[in-house]
Amino acid sequence: MDFDIKNMRARFASLRKERDKIEKALKPLQDQKTKVRTEAAAAEKALSDKIIKARAPLVDIDTEMAMLNRLLKGKTQ
Amino acid sequence: MATFNKFHSFVEAMAEGLHDLGSDQIAVALCAAANAPTATDADLGDLTQASYDNLSSRNVTTSASAQTSGTYKLTLTDLTLTSTGGTTGPFRYVVLYNDTASNDELIGYYDYGSDLTLQASESFTVDFDASNGVLTNA
Question: What integer is the mean pLDDT of B6-27?
Fold first, then answer.
């Protein structure tokens, strides 16, 4: 490590420049990811809502089956 | 009620969006004592499962997936498995996994202590904690 103040400042400026360049290249990729995620989320949300609504009756059915199985001690047939 | 043991990978999978526990299909897999799951297993393919030839549906019904005061809780409805036309097992471990996730990512498992075998016409209820939920995330 070079502890010369002038050299350290130059190195700092160089790192800042390099960092800004990488971030600039990353921006369109992040924007693309946001777009893909937004589109997918909308489609997935619609499907999830349908699934949750369709499966609602299963809660009561499963609960009653479990209760009956306990009363029958596993001999359900 | 058997104790829930989570797979290590589950917490990362949750944080990275692989699970939508509110509407994904959660299912159970069964493993014999000789094929015990380990905490480092991640996907269904990591398990050696029992045969399901005689077994009813292994799909679990999610009854609630919500947070209260910043603590998330997943609640599942008890699942009754029925063996028809022959035996099922032996199995000791009941493993929860996400059947909708692309790699059937594992969630956690219950250890029932010793192998059990369902005879033909017998049923077994996987008793999920309705009060505290199967898992929480605070």
Answer: 96
